[in-house]
């Protein structure tokens, strides 16, 4: 069967890329090896409750937000209902050592006012720091629509780290903790996180914060509806084991079942470390192959899905970050389980529906599940016992850290093995190949004509990151100026 474009992976990036290309006249097939599209993002239901697995909130979608034109251009604004987060504290940081909880309001002016009042000695430095974030978070292709693409040079990976930038607040460890807590959402410690990366992630939240009614499941269903309307073919249970090449470059793909699909454009949206195994020997230069295979991945995590009463007290349109002590946020995966930093979020079903389901995300090294990695997984009694022990520890930790929660009940636990099996990321890396300081992540274009990459590894993590990545990839095929002009009309 012949297509213009075949996309490997039906995650957010794959679906968004497919919609954009199909609207520009291409016949597009999206191939997903799992039985359902976007298995990492769509979440699951159990016991009458919905649990989000890969989407929690988005930044930069408010009035004047640089993300909003892309969101409208895709057609998502017509399909989804945004839920604005608490303006007085969209995120809160709880420091266990002192017992204090600090709220972070929405909007740069409100953040500056609140933090300057709490840390008066940091006023001038804080104003300068927030000003740099406000001016920098959206200065990326397809977010900044006024700057020509030729003016966006490849960003240096050897610049200042977040930890270095926050040294000016060394006398205010609580402020350092607050300003670095969003590193937990992209899995890179402040000592290795580029300032530009943190600016894009945290800076978009500082601008405006929204959830989506129905969470990741609603987002995926909206994208599938848009894909169907554009004529995209989405095939699940279709495992690509080989990318075919010819004298002119990309030529198609071969499925594990033996079927071959022809296409002159192949876009791979899964972890780029998996690309070399899909290609014939010698298709990639040895140095590039080695670079992809050696990409440093983010840590993995445990995801505890639970139900509890009292969530409206601490998780009503806000999230809670829990850190053992003040100072720069640590991914803490090498610390004892109950001494690691933690991210806690509630599922938002709608503005008038109180939902009692929540997820706690705790960094975890793959080494903790390595003894079960090559075994029968969930069918192994030792692995099931291990999961129960971890879940019990995390429930106890949550109860001590958040006494506001009542009737806390564990529902399910995802481990690094779960993440590995669903995302196919090496060692269950929760945010895939990280944008670490000093690491050159691959760009969209490869040296094989017609073979491109997309996804968070090529641009940035999170919903905003995969959307920008999709536009960058599509722009290379349909023309950046054509695509950017369409987005400009949606401002």
Describe this structure in words.
With 491 residues, the chain is an alpha/beta fold. The strands form five sheets. A seven-stranded mixed sheet has the order 8-7-16-17-18-15-19, sandwiched between helices. A five-stranded parallel sheet has the order 10-2-1-14-20, with helices on one face. A hairpin with a 2-residue loop joins strand 3 and strand 4. Helix 1 packs parallel to helix 14. The longest helix is centred in the C-terminal third of the chain and has 21 residues. The radius of gyration is 22 Å and the shape is globular. The two termini are 39 Å apart. The model has no long low-confidence stretch (mean pLDDT 94).
Which key terms come to mind for this protein?
491 residues, alpha/beta, 7-stranded mixed beta sheet, 5-stranded parallel beta sheet, 15 helices, 32% helix, 20% strand, globular
Amount of helix: 25-40%
Query: Tally the helices: what do you get?
Result: 15
- Biggest sheet: strands side by side, in what order? 8-7-16-17-18-15-19
Question: Main beta sheet, described?
Answer: 7 strands, mixed
Mean pLDDT: 94
* Helix vs. strand class: alpha/beta
Given the C-alpha coordinates, what overall shape results?
Answer: globular
Please report the distance between the alpha carbons of the first and last residues.
39 Å
The fraction of residues assigned to DSSP E strands is: 15-25%
- Which value, in Å, is the CA radius of gyration? 22 Å
Enumerate the spans where pLDDT stays under 50 for 5 or more consecutive residues: none
| Tally of strands | 20
């Amino acid at each position: 069967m012949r297509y213009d474009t075949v996309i490997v992976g039906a995650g957010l990036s794959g679906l968004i890329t497919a919609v954009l290309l199909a609207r520009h006249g291409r016949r597009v097939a999206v191939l997903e090896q799992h039985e359902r599209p976007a298995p990492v993002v769509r979440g699951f239901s159990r016991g009458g409750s919905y649990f989000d697995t890969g989407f929690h909130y988005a930044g930069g979608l408010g009035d004047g937000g640089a993300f909003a034109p892309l969101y409208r251009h895709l057609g998502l604004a017509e399909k989804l209902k945004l839920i604005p987060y608490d303006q007085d504290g969209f995120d809160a940081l709880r420091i266990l050592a002192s017992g204090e909880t600090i709220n972070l309001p929405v909007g740069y002016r409100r953040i500056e006012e609140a933090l300057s009042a709490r840390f008066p000695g940091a006023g001038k430095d804080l104003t300068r720091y927030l000003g740099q974030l406000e001016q920098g978070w959206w200065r990326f292709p397809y977010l900044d629509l006024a700057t020509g693409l030729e003016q966006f040079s490849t960003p240096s990976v050897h610049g200042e780290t977040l930890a270095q930038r926050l040294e000016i607040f060394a006398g205010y460890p609580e402020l350092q903790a607050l300003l670095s807590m969003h590193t937990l959402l992209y899995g890179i410690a402040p000592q290795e996180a580029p300032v530009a990366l943190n600016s894009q992630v945290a800076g978009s939240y500082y601008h405006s914060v929204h959830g989506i009614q129905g969470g990741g499941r609603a987002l995926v269903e909206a994208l599938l509806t848009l894909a169907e309307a554009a004529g995209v073919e989405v095939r699940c249970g279709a495992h690509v084991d080989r990318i075919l090449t010819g004298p002119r470059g990309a030529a198609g793909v071969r499925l594990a079942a033996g079927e071959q699909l022809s296409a002159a454009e192949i876009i791979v949206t899964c972890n780029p470390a998996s690309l070399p195994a899909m290609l014939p020997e010698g298709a990639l230069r040895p140095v590039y192959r080695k670079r992809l295979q050696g990409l440093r991945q983010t840590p993995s995590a445990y995801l505890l899905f639970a139900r509890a009463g009292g969530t409206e007290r601490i998780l009503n349109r806000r999230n809670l970050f829990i850190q053992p002590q003040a100072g720069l946020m640590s991914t803490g995966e090498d610390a004892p389980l109950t001494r690691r930093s933690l991210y806690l979020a509630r599922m938002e079903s709608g503005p008038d529906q109180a939902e009692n389901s929540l997820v706690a995300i705790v960094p975890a090294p793959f080494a903790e599940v390595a003894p079960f990695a090559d075994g029968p997984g969930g069918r192994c009694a030792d692995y099931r016992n291990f999961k129960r022990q971890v879940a019990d520890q995390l429930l106890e930790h949550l109860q001590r850290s958040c006494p506001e929660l009542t009737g806390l009940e564990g529902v399910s636990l995802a481990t690094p093995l779960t993440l590995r099996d669903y995302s196919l990321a090496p060692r269950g890396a929760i945010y895939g190949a990280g944008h670490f300081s000093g690491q050159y992540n691959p760009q969209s274009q490869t040296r094989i004509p017609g073979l491109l990459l997309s996804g968070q590894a090529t641009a940035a993590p999170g919903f905003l990151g995969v959307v920008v990545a999709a536009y960058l990839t599509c722009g290379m095929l349909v023309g950046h100026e054509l695509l950017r002009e369409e987005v400009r009309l949606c401002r």
